[in-house]
Write a structure and sequence with these properties.
This protein is of the alpha/beta class. The chain is built from 13 helices and 12 strands. α2 links the parallel β1 and β2.
Length: 288
Amino acid sequence: MQKNAERAQIIYDVGAHEGDDTGWYLKMGYRVIAVEANPDLVNKLQLKFRKAVSDGNLQIVPKAVTGTGVSEVEFHVTEESGEGSVYNKRLLEAGWKFKTIRVPATSLAALFSEYGMGLYCKIDIEGADIPVLQTLKQNDLLPFYFSVELSGLSLSELNGDASSLFTALDIFNQLGYKKFKLIDQYTLATVSGTPFYSKQHNIILRAVKKFCKIVGVYPKNMLPRNWYNKVYKHDFTESSSGPFGEMLLGKWQTAEQMRQIIKERFAEFDRHDKIRHHIFWVDLHASM
């Protein structure tokens, strides 16, 4: 009972950035372990959440999370936004200017061991999500809910070999996670087995959405981000990961169902939405 009670209170925010998600988790009453490698952002987090830190509700871990087992790594930080990664490939492809620094490093298993079994772990570390996830084992102190960016690869790489889209799903399945949801991060919509990206260009649907926003009505099947904002009285910005677990809209899917959903929705995105958005930006949520 004690272990379950402690677990229910802990959330890991791996890649906390400016604290959009951290603030939401604190608002919901959780104890947060916020992991951020960029020293400038760490300072901002400490100032922004100094009361939560003082009260013991927030632990800021100033480290990069890797799967290499080293105590220090090179970390690449963009000059424009402060976003960073242990991999510079995505930054180079985007044409961003960045600097390279050395920062302390840790692993997910080490974090879970030090701070305890959590309710949820969010990973958003710019292309390093999957390599970090690959280091976990079934006997690690795994959280009940988990989310990662489905792929850190560019569309050109995915069109060359889309098999990497299923890597996170396969890892979660091997770790014992049995239920899954796919969340479109542009809209926070739960993407399922029915067409989604092709509908986003429908003129009538776009007009209805615009009218709904004007009158302040937010149907959850049309404007999920706005619906979440209203229901939870929180501003889920485009840089936030959004809700998790049972707060998410839509049904949980089995691994096989999710494999088909990923395959179909990526093909649909590639046909209808890649010019507008360039990145197949979806998070995979997993539940025990």
